[in-house]
Amino acid sequence: MQVNLEQLRSFAMVAQLGNFTRAAEHLHLAQPSLSRQISSLEQSLGTELFHRARAGSTLTVAGETLLPLARRMLADEASVRRELDELAGLRRGRVRLGATPTLCVSLVAEALSAFHGTYPGIELHITERGSRGLLEDLGAGELDLALITTSDAASAERFTVTPLLVEELVVISSSSAPPLTGRESIGLAEVATLPQVVFSSTYDLRATTGAAFVAVGLSPHTVIEGAEMDAVLRFVERGIGVAIVPAMVLIERAGLRSVRLADPTLTRTISIARAADISPTTAVTVMQQTIVRTAAALAAGQQATMRLA
């Protein structure tokens, strides 16, 4: 049995109007075409659906049985079309975004604010992990996009990785304490002598700064070790110690001041990754575009947001 939606649509219209000519006009069809559709439907079902007469057409018992089923199928088809149209228009959908902890308090917060304000109907799911863990989630299909700061797995064929910006790492201290130096930058050897608040070992940033100290044969004077990003910032604000952080986290942090790091200068590259073998949905594509624009704006204003000593 072969029945299509156009046949059901023609059948339901003839049943509603009781007249083939008027039904054809309403559907913008030639009457012979409408008649052929109804005849094909009757042949497929093996029964007549209408009593045809000059005064009009009325439903047979088979036609009366089919009509509510046909209307339900047509209503379901209309509902599916509406849902697809809503998704295309970004009124519904879902984006699963992963990011490192340091990016969640800066780039991600800014990007999500802009995205949600424009597309409030899109569900947003956030995962906060280190870069390697995020790439594992991405490869397993548990994320749509991942903001990462390491490149050791970036060359894998299963990921498409787009660099967004190169961010400078700075030394932060409490704005209520005297400046760390009167110069525009501070050397790593000098930082090593200061009481320092150090991130958890799960942070990519911890590995970066640790490797920098080892490379020049230094060991930092650690007063607190193993803290998460928000705790690090709060501890520094209260004058417990200094910390090496991405410049971007200073946004809206009046209790902190920063100074550039020199000898050596430390930077990190922030990239956005997605699975190479999966076509992104419209919502995911627009989220990626929003993140790219936000990153460009933050990079342009990065120097202004740093409070130099």
* Count of domains: 3
Number of helices: 11
Shape: rod-shaped
Under the CATH scheme, which architecture of the largest domain would be assigned?
Answer: 3-Layer(aba) Sandwich
Assembly status: single chain
- Portion in helices: 40-55%
What is the succession of H and E elements?
A: HHHEEHEHHEHEEEHEHEHEEEH
Summarize the structure in words.
The chain has 309 residues and is of the alpha/beta class. The chain has 3 domains: 5-88, Winged helix-like DNA-binding domain superfamily/Winged helix DNA-binding domain (Arc Repressor Mutant, subunit A), CATH 1.10.10.10; 93-164 and 271-291, Periplasmic binding protein-like II (D-Maltodextrin-Binding Protein, domain 2), CATH 3.40.190; 167-267, D-Maltodextrin-Binding Protein, domain 2 (3-Layer(aba) Sandwich). Helix content is 45%, strand content 25%. The chain has helices at residues 5-17, 20-26, 31-45, 61-88, 101-104, 107-118, 131-139, 188-192, 204-215, 229-237, 282-305; strands spanning 50-53, 56-59, 93-99, 122-128, 145-148, 159-174, 185-187, 195-199, 221-227, 243-246, 256-262, 267-275. The strands form 3 sheets. Strands 3, 4, 5, 6, 7, 10, 11 and 12 form an 8-stranded mixed sheet that branches. The longest helix is centred in the first third of the chain and has 28 residues, at 61-88.
In a nutshell, what does this entry contain?
By secondary structure, the chain is an alpha/beta fold. It has helices spanning 5-17, 20-26, 31-45, 61-88, 101-104, 107-118, 131-139, 188-192, 204-215, 229-237, 282-305; strands spanning 50-53, 56-59, 93-99, 122-128, 145-148, 159-174, 185-187, 195-199, 221-227, 243-246, 256-262, 267-275.
